[in-house]
Design a protein that fits this description.
Rossmann fold; 6 strands; 218 residues; six-stranded parallel beta sheet; single chain; Arc Repressor Mutant, subunit A; alpha/beta
Length: 218
């Protein structure tokens, strides 16, 4: 997995590069702010961008929103010192595939990062609970353009498992006896029909609207 580090602190970038390379990750490059992160993402085409939020100039949220729109196959994971709820919710809305805090221990961080390559949204348990709680709240006078009734039986089964915690293609494929390519097809259809951008949004949407009941994930 090729990674681009976007952070305005040189010492932190150096330390993070050393950690990632020691765990077998390929660091494709570094960026000092959001604008440079977008520029280098276009030129280097990394698999993952580790994005700080508070950087001078274009901040991490602005850069994440641009990358989600311009390079949707690229995964942006926020790596920040801030556990502010509003920033967490906004990052997901901007298209981030994960939100990790800089106080994680190295082993936990690298384990979570590995899950990104498997198509999973990555959040620590505490942040995941915050996220699901927020998006599960009823919204007054809210109209959603997604068409949940258009989901097929198989797509509904996939969604049930995602809500229960099986968000990676590998786990979904194993539980349903399907190939990972078939799972990718179903997940893409779910995203398109619900007019959402990533799996974290899908899970939150399903919980908020009570579209499916979670299965017991064994």
């Amino acid at each position: 997995m090729r990674i681009l580090i976007a952070d305005d602190h040189a010492l932190f970038r150096d330390g993070l590069r050393s950690l990632l390379e020691a765990h077998g990750f390929d660091v494709a490059g570094e960026a000092r702010d959001g604008a440079e992160a977008v520029e280098k993402a276009w030129s280097l085409k990394p698999d993952v961008v580790l994005m700080d939020l508070t950087m001078p100039g274009a901040n991490g949220l602005d850069a994440t929103k641009r990358l989600a729109a311009e390079l949707p196959e690229m995964k942006v994971v926020i790596l920040t010192a801030s556990d502010d709820d509003d920033l967490l919710f906004e990052a997901v809305k901007c298209g981030a595939k994960g939100y990790l805090l800089k106080d994680l221990d190295s082993e936990s961080f690298c384990t979570l990062l590995e899950r990104v390559s498997q198509g999973e949204p990555v959040f620590t348990p505490t942040l995941a609970r915050k996220l699901l709680h927020e998006f599960a709240k009823p919204r007054r006078a809210q109209r959603d353009s997604g068409d949940a009734e258009a989901l097929t039986r198989r797509e509904t089964e996939v969604l049930e498992l995602m809500v229960s915690g099986a968000t990676s293609n590998r786990r979904l494929a194993r539980k349903l006896g399907l190939s990972e390519n078939t799972i990718k097809f179903h997940v893409r259809n779910i995203l398109d029909k619900l007019h959402l951008h990533n799996r974290a949004e899908v899970v939150a949407y399903a919980l908020r609207h009570h579209i499916v009941e979670p299965r017991e994930d064994r």
